[in-house]
Amino acid sequence: MSPDTPSPPSALAPFRYPAFRAIWIANLASNMGSMIQSVGAAWLMTELTRSHMLIALVQAGATIPILLLGVFAGAIADNYDRRRVMLAAQTGMLLVSAALTVTTWMGAITPLLLLFFTLAVGAGTALNGPAWQASVRMQVGPKDLPQAIALNSIAFNLARSAGPALGGLLISVTGPAPAFALNAVSYLALIIVLMRWHPEVAEPKRSPMLASITTGLRFCYQSDPVRRILIRGFIFGIPAISFQALLPSLVRDRLQGTETVYGLCLAAFGAGSIIAALLVGNLRRRWGSDRIVTAASLVYAAAMLPVALIQSLPAILIAAFVAGMAWVSVLTTLNVAMQLRSPEAILGRCMAIYQAVTFGAMAIGAWLFGMIADFRTLAQAILASAVWLVISAVIVPMLAPMPGRDEGRIMP
Questions:
Q1: pLDDT-based confidence at 267, cuts 50/70/90?
Q2: What pTM was estimated for this model as a whole?
Q3: Where are the domains of the chain?
Q4: Is residue 411 over pLDDT 60?
Q5: Residues 287-323: pLDDT tens digits?
Q6: What's the pLDDT tens digit per position in 79-106?
């Protein structure tokens, strides 16, 4: 590096901003509660039914609303105060989690009721997501945006590491209802921080809902770099979700494990995600987005082989760690690429469309591979997802390569 070449920003630079720091800490607490509830819901479903598809649909239930409601949520994020939108979403999820707690504590929970509550929380996530993604620019300077996105990913994956292990232990001792109650309480920290945060932003220019949605869809369709990012997210999302969606069944049926073992597997996945989130920025600058997404997809596929073929907890934990690294490498790279190519005026809509495409694909994948597991076997479902990842990693980069470093870039 020459003396005149500016050094790359520090991975921790966004913590210089008080608003980002406070929101990051509160979001970590909220994510921790969400992961504890996710473990509780997934394991509770294994006790309520033997159907692999219903168990996989717990994971799908968290993402289906993003597919169905995402573009509307994006228009809301661009037409209204994003802070208030996040407050409304967080409050709604608190109320739903409280209702789930009471229903479970009363012993009235059923598979369909559990899916209903999961969908309701997913609807809150769908409303919150675009406003949350778009608000990162309000918290940090432009040069620190990629690092802020990576740090938000780290917060989620820190929770993914500690939350499942804690959730599994809590559920094994107390049952799922206290885990759901803990999640309801965890929303309070973020709600309080958002109520105290008053960023100086211009009043959003409102337009009719359908016209707003059409504007966002038109931009994403007409922008060739954005369109290719969306294709890569969709193609990756369908097979990649199979591991997380089928993991409760794998632990119960193949490892004869408990909720604690399930939590440990998710913790290993989260630990790998944290390592990747710390490294992926430098790797992306060195190798480029296309190589990162392609290589990580192949690594994810390789990690699925021991999951499908070996009935050993240490092997599953190692595979989960590697899969977590690959998972966050792909999704963080796609997220950064999308944010840097989306105009501020329609950023919420662009991020909503990205989430709808990527997480909607995950909902489809959870249903698809859950159905394959029911009609065939768990091993064949996991192997099918690995084959999909390998074929797509070979073919898709030729048809829809990731944008080059400055191609379509809007942010400085």
A1: confident
A2: 0.74
A3: 13-399
A4: no
A5: 989 999 999 999 999 999 999 998 899 999 999 999 9
A6: 888 889 999 999 999 999 999 999 999 9
- Domain at 13-399, CATH from 3.40.50.300, 1.20.1250.20, 3.20.20.70, 3.40.50.800: 1.20.1250.20
Convert the chain into a string of H (helix), E (strand) and C (coil): CCCCCCCCCCCCHHHHCHHHHHHHHHHHHHHHHHHHHHHHHHHHHHHHCCCHHHHHHHHHHCCHHHHHHHHHHHHHHHHCCHHHHHHHHHHHHHHHHHHHHHHHHCCCCCHHHHHHHHHHHHHHHHHHHHHHHHHHHHHCCHHHHHHHHHHHHHHHHHHHHHHHHHHHHHHHHHCHHHHHHHHHHHHHHHHHHHHHCCCCCCCCCCCCHHHHHHHHHHHHHHCHHHHHHHHHHHHHHHHHCHHHHHHHHHHHHHCCCCHHHHHHHHHHHHHHHHHHHHHHHHHHHHHCHHHHHHHHHHHHHHHHHHHHHCCCHHHHHHHHHHHHHHHHHHHHHHHHHHHCCCCHHHHHHHHHHHHHHHHHHHHHHHHHHHHHHHHCCHHHHHHHHHHHHHHHHHHHHHHCCCCCCCCCCCCC
